[in-house]
From TrEMBL:
Family statement drawn from the similarity comment of this UniProt entry: Belongs to the Orn/Lys/Arg decarboxylase class-II family. LysA subfamily.
Name of the gene this protein is made from: lysA
CDD domains the record matches: PLPDE_III_DapDC
Entry-linked PANTHER family: DIAMINOPIMELATE DECARBOXYLASE, GROUP IV DECARBOXYLASE
Protein name: Diaminopimelate decarboxylase
Keywords: Amino-acid biosynthesis, Decarboxylase, Lyase, Lysine biosynthesis, Pyridoxal phosphate
Residues in Orn/DAP/Arg decarboxylase 2 N-terminal domain copies: 36-291
GO biological process: lysine biosynthetic process via diaminopimelate
Subunit-structure text: Homodimer.
Pfam families according to UniProt: Orn_Arg_deC_N (PF02784), Orn_DAP_Arg_deC (PF00278)
EC number annotated for this UniProt entry: 4.1.1.20
Positions annotated to bind pyridoxal 5'-phosphate: G242, E284, P285, G286, R287, Y385
Catalytic activity: meso-2,6-diaminopimelate + H(+) = L-lysine + CO2
Taxonomic placement: Bacteria, Bacillati, Actinomycetota, Actinomycetes, Kitasatosporales
InterPro entries recorded: Ala_racemase/Decarboxylase_C, DAP_deCOOHase_LysA, De-COase2_C, De-COase2_CS, De-COase2_N, De-COase2_pyr-phos_BS, Orn/DAP/Arg_de-COase, PLP-binding_barrel
Amino acid sequence: SRTVTRDEQGALTVGGIEVARLAEEFGTPAYFMDEADFRARCRAWREAFGTQADVFYAGKAFLSRAVVKWLYEEGLNLDVCSGGELTTALSAGMPAERIAFHGNNKSEAEIERAVEAGVGRIVLDSFQEIARVAHIAQRLGRRQPVLIRVTVGVEAHTHEFIATAHEDQKFGIALAGGQAAEAVRRALKLDGLELLGIHSHIGSQIFDMAGFEVSARRVVHLLGQIRDEHGVELPEIDLGGGLGIAYTSEDDPSEPHEIAKALAEIVTRECETARLSTPRISVEPGRAIVGPTAFTLYRVGTIKHLEGLRTYVSVDGGMSDNIRTALYDAEYSVALVSRTSTAEPMLSRVVGKHCESGDIVVKDAFLPADLAPGDLIAVPATGAYCRSMASNYNHALRPPVVAVNDGEARVIIRRETEEDLLALDVG
Ligand code: LLP
């Protein structure tokens, strides 16, 4: 990763600062984010997609006001999926027209706020929502730009809980059985809505472009049907996010320019076949932008050697700052970072301090046999869906996020305190 490097003395540094110094200053556990790397990834996506496409960063992966500012400065748009994310985006100065609002069960209040703010698009997820958004927009005297989210029936090869385009799940409106065509029919009739196009998101942590290919083909086919039935060519398709990153050395993700090229080729070819003009494409990468930009730093506590099995290395965090291993059986790697060691590798399992045996951060990893309490270890690629899915389980205090750039470190989300916990407990 670009994020963590060793200097000439062999000490690990991030953004020009020694990791051990970061631990001293900010404590552990903590997430450290390489701002320059985040910005470089934003630029790589934006440049890869050029002027023919829009990149919406998926805020659910990780969102803070600093991140919103970076996105704004790097020319990206932002996808939010709750009132909370919308508030964060607007309060950090993201122009409403660069925001897309997602969700399968947006509340009336959330929709009202989004329409009032003038968000660039709302992604409609159900028949009820088509009516709801149209009604609210009309009441507010607006014509709200929208996309309709469809499920294209693709089985993405990823964990069941993060695959989203097969038909038996809660998101979107099925292409099958003419459901999506009916949704379009209704949306086109409603004065409060300006139908921009069709949205499809097939899942997450995907490496194989085949799923996107099928998805794009089916969405373009629907655009053709819409043209035939209504005489309108919808100007946009959004192919969602989901592009995989390397969590361990076994993963081999594509670069943004390869993805952009592949998607553009598929859409152009399908549109030629359907004799449609090529719509504007948008994509919504979250993990691919923020995942590799951060790592979690932990301090080693208890170490238990289980004869003939493995060594359990307990750290000062766990499933409350990274639920992904427990939830998705996710793979991570780990490295000793506070010193170098030439000791033999020992098979280790990095576990947290929670009252649950599934509280595992890294299932199987080799750490040096002389590992000792007090050592610092780092788990890379925790920028996406770790802080954003963090919990207070066992009244753990959620760790801070520290942005490191050019020799300077700055807290962008502070560490939670016991006062924060008690402040919510008003009973
Ligand atoms: N667009 C939509 C409509 C989505 O639902 C998602 C993710 C994205 C974009 C961004 O996907 P990405 O590029 O980040 O894969 N918590 C899970 C992932 C759930 C993703 C939900 N939606 C995890 O930790 O792997």
